[in-house]
Design goal:
Length: 393
């Protein structure tokens, strides 16, 4: 995530805390009586108290369990439970905001108009606004979540439209430069891939020419594979993927049931997230998500950069005396390996690769069916960092 995005996020944190406290006060005590006589209001602390952290931490644990482990909350109306909505606002909102900023930076153009579907309290909508969107609509079925999004718009003096929406209802009017769907697809249609793909296709009709649909999902094997299945339906129908795929065929990560594909990006974790993650025994040191950026119907796939290019789709893999990664490019998904003894300035980059980076390799020593062995004659060059648009040839 860029320095600007990290600074923008820090500005949201006190607003989130203030709003959470207001909501909590309203539901536990009713509205506070106005102060009597001369009264100097103490500025509310921008940090949660230990008691508040404990309370929110309990909500985060319920959410995390229900959305990522047993998944009994996926598809349920958890945003209408004030304690869970509050936990979402303080913990998942900043994470989704940061994830979204790091994906929006990958788009070919800054969005002017943006529709956020399944917005919840609007982290992706506000990420879009901070990335330059001027006309933004947040749409969700949860009225309380939309109300929080409206309150955040007031607190930040930003303009945001809200609409009640669910997949069986028509989409909000208009066409948009960017449409986002953050962590919502996996909650729809009880896993039915065809229905999800049909919804995504309807959504794609609402993009302006050159626009982008950004679908972001949790970095879990099952939700990631389900997203890849939706991708394959759309790719088979001729839609182009802007990111992360360079391969235009059926996704090779679906061949083996144990494979999947996700992004991992560094971020400057806000102190609030750190404290709450500790309290809920969760880890958020990096941003992990699965994602897909789709182009509107009729737009061709972008030509890949010249040479043999691959996106790194794994972390560094164990290997005795050698470095290994998985790469995925126009040729498909392949293993890449380079022995320590062949390390030199021309291939040094191979030893520092990050998931999501796009590289160009040259001078491969050994071609195997499912991989490429690099040598001291090989070159490794960075083409695009993770979160950067891949340059045109
Ligand atoms: C995990 S939250 C994601 C919120 C936000 N987009 C983000 O990425 O942080 C999923 C959202 O999808 C919404 N959602 C779930 N099922 C829905 C449905 N059938 N119709 C509309 N929204 C739905 C929920 O209300 C919730 O706000």
């Amino acid at each position: 995530m860029s320095g600007d995005a990290a600074r923008d996020l820090e500005e949201w944190i006190p607003r989130l805390i203030t709003l959470w406290r207001q909501q909590r006060a309203a539901r536990t005590k009713g509205p506070r009586p106005p102060p009597r006589g001369r009264h100097v209001e103490e500025a509310p602390s921008a940090k949660l108290t230990p008691q508040e952290i404990k309370e929110v931490g309990a909500g985060i644990k319920r959410l995390s369990h229900g959305l990522t482990r047993e998944r009994e909350l996926a598809g349920a109306k958890y945003m209408d439970d004030p304690a869970l909505l509050g936990a979402y606002l303080l913990f998942y909102w900043p994470v989704s905001y940061a994830q979204s900023r790091s994906l929006l930076s990958e788009l070919p153009a800054r969005p002017r108009s943006l529709l956020d579907l399944g917005s919840g309290p609007g982290p992706l909508a506000f990420a879009g606004i901070d990335a330059g969107a001027r006309e933004t609509i947040a749409a969700d079925r949860s009225k309380p979540a939309l109300e929080l999004a409206r309150q955040l718009a007031i607190a930040s003096s930003e303009s945001l439209g809200t609409r009640e929406w669910s997949p069986e209802r028509p989409l909000p009017e208009g066409t948009f430069d960017v449409i986002t769907m953050g962590h919502v697809l996996n909650e729809l249609f009880a896993g039915d891939v065809e229905k999800r793909a049909a919804l995504v296709e309807r959504v794609l009709e609402r993009l302006k020419p050159g626009g982008s649909l950004v679908v972001m999902e949790p970095a879990l094997r099952d939700t990631s594979r389900a997203l890849l299945q939706v991708r394959d339906v759309l790719v088979a129908k001729g839609y182009a993927v802007r990111a992360p795929c360079l391969f235009r065929g059926a996704c090779p990560a679906l061949i083996k049931p144990s494979d999947w594909c996700h992004a991992e990006r560094p971020w400057r974790m806000p102190a609030l997230t750190e404290a709450l993650a500790r309290s809920a025994s969760l880890h958020k040191e990096s941003l992990k998500m699965s994602y897909l950026v789709l182009a509107p119907k009729g737009e061709a796939w972008a030509e890949p950069p010249k040479g043999r290019v691959l996106r790194i789709v794994s972390e560094a893999l164990e290997g005795k005396g050698r470095q290994r990664f998985m790469g995925c490019g126009p040729e498909g998904r392949i293993g890449l390996a380079l022995q320590d003894k062949h390390r030199n300035p021309g291939n040094e980059k191979f030893f520092h690769l990050q998931r999501g980076e796009v590289i160009r390799i040259g001078g491969v020593l050994e071609e195997k069916g499912d991989g490429a062995g690099l040598s001291d004659q090989s070159t490794v060059e960075l083409v695009a960092r993770a979160g950067q648009a891949v340059p045109k040839p």
